[in-house]
Amino acid sequence: MNKKQLGLVVALMPAMMVGSAQADTVFGVYFDAKYWQYDTDGNIGSGSDQATFDFDQEQRAILSIALEHPIPLLPNLKIRQSVQKSTGSTTLTSNFTYDGRTYLAGSTIGADLDFSHTDFTLYYEILDNDVVSFDIGVSGQKYDGYATVIDQNGNRNELAFNGVIPTGYLAAQIGIPGTGFNFYGEGYLLSIDDSSLRDIDAGIEYRFIENVAADVSLQVGYRTMKVELDDLDGLYSDISFKGPYIGLKGHF
Prior knowledge:
This protein is mainly beta. It has one helix at residues 3-17; strands at residues 28-45, 50-55, 58-68, 76-82, 85-91, 96-98, 101-103, 108-114, 117-128, 132-150, 156-176, 181-192, 195-210, 215-232, 235-251. It has a single domain, classed as Lipocalin.
């Protein structure tokens, strides 16, 4: 999604909601907590010179909360926190310069990454019923992380980066009436110049508690995320995070 497309989404969202009666009829709070096991692949650098690392498998938490309401034209709010840290190593086949320091061919270096981020999403419910729901909105992924290269003596060369990456947001859910099962998916998408971000989550959930006070569902799914950065505070990356998760979702 480029800048023009993102701007068009922002401009059209209020118009799409005029006359819609698909939103929650009362104030609703949604939360979910997921345990994500993911693999990391890719390379980092401080310019065109980048190194590819073999990363260890990680297990981290994903937490989110969403607030929905029946007020026309006012968007709903979702906040998601994703802890995303990875460590790895590689043996260089050629010299590698990172943030002003050169590592020689044949040496083994490590990498310590923190791509943890918080999403702040404003969205509208275009459809919202027991069979089909569809949301559209805009989001900002806030990063305050680092990408560190570690030499054979344990010396750390840390490149810190922070900023907010704007993205488009889409989410959909299809229910199987009378079963408690739903299929769902959501995506955060951006493509601007040489930077891009694709964060897609899809799975199946089973609602095992449903009453007036609360709904609670078990979720099983898969998340894949690809982050291509072109000079975010001097960092260049082509990194992918992907793997399965299990979690709980609640609606109050």
